[in-house]
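Re: [help] complex structure
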Amino acid sequence: MTELLLNSIVNGILLGGVLALLAFGMNLIFGVVKIIHLAYGQCVMLGMYVVYTLAVQMHLPVILSCIIALPVMGIVGLVLQLLVINPLLKAKANPLTQLLALAGLTIVVENAAQVVWGADLRGINIQLPLIHIGNVFLRTSNLIAFFGALLTLWGLYLFLNRTYLGLAIRSIAQDLDSARLMGINPRMIYFITMAAGGILTGLIAAFFSPIYAVHPHFGGSFTLMAFIIVVLGGMGNLLGGFIGAFIIGVVTSVSAVLTSTEIADIIVLVIFISVILIRPQGLLGIRVSK
Amino acid sequence: MAATLTVILVFAAVGVFPYFVPSPYLLHIGTLIFIWSFITTAWSYMGRFGLVSLGHGAFLGVGAYTTGLLFNFYGLTPWVGMLLGGLAAVGLAVVIGYACFRFGVIGDYFALVTLALGEVVALTLIAFRDITGGSLGFTLKSKGTSLFYFQSEEKIHFYYVSLAFLILGLLVWKWIDRSRMQKALRAIGEDEIAASTLGVGIIRYKMVITMISAFLTAIGAVLYAQYITYLNPHTLSGVAPSLEIAFKAILGGMFSLWGPTVGTALIVSLEEYFRVVYGSTFVGFSQIIYGLALVLLIIFLPKGIYGSVQDWFKKKA
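Output below.
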């Protein structure tokens, strides 16, 4: 039993790494564009279909397929900004309307995927060796995803803190009007943020592809998971999201072993509801009076 | 006066329709439209005052499963079960509603809490698979055509029963419109803080409307389950049905009496049209168009189809 528990904790931490990356993308978009990207998991799903199409249907090497998926998903992010988010911002839609529009978008993406790729499970079918250290079994694909995600997060941290563009993005997130007065073009930054968020979905898709098989409803649970982490850590709080991801990763993984996957999901959802009710600013957030 | 006459004529036409066109298929579509219109109308009681719930699937699931399980295991008549299911849904609404309203959760956050609630109910129904049949759902024991057990092999029975329920739902809307509650809720919806300084009991009014909405939604789910005689957690709870209810109402226009009905009729007919014309090869196709139409409408016509048409006529007059 302790072995099982140890295994699930380790796997939860590994899962937490990728979830942290997922939550980072959603958090960044929320912080900068001020939109809850409710179709974020669905974008990851699209990225996985891109990898599948390139690697299995067009027989390209898996690594190359994953690399191509990055710019493709970046373009998807730009298209979303152009066709959905810009009109929403222009119409001065309230947050609820934005949420509903993006929820409508998930229906479009999921069903488009079903029409194009069918409802069956699609995987790239590669076998990576299993590593075991002591009594803990680790899948290589999970390890790659974990370290890849951490490395990407480090890179993103440097990008946001050390580059001029990163500074512009952070200033837009902090105070839109002042940033505008400093000569930053918010429209441009929105596009860059959505493209970066899109590339991130492609990267996550590349990490997920060897682990999961994709199907049209694959994205929904990850959108929910990412959103729960974002709320847990405090909306727009990147460090909070990072910590939240590991909490949620370990909680799902351990409670799935102790009970069942459904009960594990219920526990996570109840955490989410409680956080919104009792501590809407998140674990690390500061309460802003309305 | 002319409007009332039109309404009576429309209902009379819908009422005698089966005698002129005795097609079981059209009766089936009509019944589905009535049941889901009843549910989306009940949803809009809340939605029109800014309480946009994305978790009405929770009330569907609690209502239908309470009734169905009591019937299958203890032979309890669905007429009593329906009331118990409705009360169970009200109980759930009280818990989540009070928590949300007490802590001032509104707008998009309210939508997200309810979305999670719908999923919690779905997962609970799946997790207790020994009783509920899990993801596969369960079939109601057949009693043939029985008024006592609220089952019928004749489609026409359900056609009229669900039409009656829809009329009831619309009358409740009218009743809310004439009540004090309507003024209070409208004030709350526009500016909660201003309303509370004027002495409007925010929590109380929100609770009452949520309870009414949950109760009738649960009743609608029982109606659907009795008609289809099969219960499944994915069609009666969780994210998908919850969003569908909200979207049908929003598409038609949740601020007007006929909006939810128009939206539901449109979506159900559209889905059927695509299913019949394109068959199963394009299963997702109607949904893509439906989703696109939704996104466009939400951005450009936030009052919905019926609401916008109504505005247009008002401007002309």
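The mean pLDDT of chain A is 89.
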